[in-house]
Amino acid sequence: MAAGRPVSLMVQLLSLTAGAYLTRYQHAGLLDDLEQAIGIWQAPLGDRAERTAEWASLLGNAYQQRFTSIPDMADLDQAIEHGELAVAATSPADPRLGTRLGKLAVPVNNANQAAEEVWVMDRPVPA
Which of 81, 18, 7, 88 has the alpha carbon at shortest distance from 50? Predict the structure, then answer.
């Protein structure tokens, strides 16, 4: 999975399992599947350091999807935090940087929209 570096079988299996839960959530809409994916990606793994950018990107995407289903600002904050971590851990020459920036743009845009809606609701009504 990682170019040039051996990845333990356990990390590969966990990543594939989390991806399967996420895919099933996307098709069936069962929130429990999304929760399972997030739980796997959050689990501490000894050799996860070499995969920080990839896992942070996947976890950020999962939080963004959960925010879309259940609008909780904590999930949006987590999506942004993990997206920023993924971008920061990605080399400028890495071809995945554009994808990770794109994934980060989604929760940032949602946060801006949410802040704008709060501002609009708090504005005084013109007389």
Answer: 7
What contacts 99, CB < 8 A, 6 or more positions away?
A: 57
Tokens of 17: 């399992």
Domain of 46? 9-122
4 inside domain: no
Q: What is the number of domains present in the chain?
A: 1
Q: Which DSSP helix (H) or strand (E) runs through 30?
A: none
Q: Which whole-number Å values give the CA distances from 104 to 4, 12, 34, 60, 67, in the listed order? A: 26, 24, 19, 8, 14
Do 114 and 73 meet the contact criterion of CB atoms below 8 Å apart? yes
Amino acid, single-letter form, for residue 59: L
What global pTM score does this model have? Answer: 0.75
Residue 86 is assigned to a structural domain of this protein: yes
pLDDT digits (tens, 9 = 90+) for 37-94: 999 888 765 455 556 788 888 899 999 999 999 999 999 999 999 999 999 989 999 9
pLDDT digits (tens, 9 = 90+) for 23-50: 999 999 999 999 999 998 887 654 555 5
Which CATH number fits the domain that encloses residue 55? 1.25.40
